[in-house]
Amino acid sequence: MYTLESTQTFEQEIKRSRFQAVSGPVATEAAARDFIETYSELSAGHNCWAWRIGSRYRFSDDGEPSGTAGKPILQAIDGQSLDNVAVVVSRWFGGVLLGSGGLVRAYGGTAAACLRAAPKSLVIPRVPAQVKVGFADLAIVKARLLAVPDLRIEEEVFTEEGAELALALPELETAAVRRLVSDVTSGRSILLVSI
Predict the structure, then answer these.
(1) Which InterPro entries does this UniProt record tie to the protein (predicted)?
(2) Which pLDDT does position 181 carry in this prediction?
(3) Is CATH 3.30.70.240 what the domain over 126-193 is classified as, yes or no?
């Protein structure tokens, strides 16, 4: 799965109607609602949208015939294997009726073109984890942890004995990092994974 790195805009004219798509990354449902509110054009006749965050998704036809706008936008998101993404497609009517099939192609195609043009990054599922480590082992543990691809040290809190490290750990690396921490510290520190 991939997500967008930044907001992207794409615009095209289809049979004198103007379609403008704005896509962007969203992490929560509240962020998706804010994105839709921010990028809906008040001057447009329709502001149709869709978003996907994991298994949760929503879409709206905003007055267009049922199934002709929101669902094709969602299919454009899913068709490019995207997650944590919202798309708003605004339409200014140009006087020519497009019909149901034409609307599906116009909304879905505009969203897909916008998404194709957007810079993407791989979504890496992470789990929160914690490690308590003494001062003697701190430097080597941090160096080894930072060498693990896609692992992030989110917080470092110093204690009397050493430090507590809060990690964002790539889910697939949990067992390997657990062994690494134990081996490097000769069993003095262990990795605790929160689920």
Answers:
(1) EFG_III/V, Impact, Impact_N, Impact_N_sf, Ribosomal_Su5_D2-typ_SF, UPF0029_Impact_C, UPF0029_Impact_CS
(2) 93
(3) yes
Please tell me the pTM assigned to this model: 0.74
Nearest to 118 by CA among 157, 86, 146, 158: 86
- CATH number, domain 2-122: 3.30.230.30
In SS3 terms, 92-135 reads as ECCCCCCHHHHHHHHHHHHHHHHHHHCCEEECCCEEEEEEEEEH
Q: Looking at residue 34, what is its pLDDT? A: 98
Cβ distance 168 to 174 under 8 Å? no
Residue ranges matching CATH 3.30.70.240 in the chain: 126-193
For the chain, give every residue range classified as CATH 3.30.230.30. Answer: 2-122
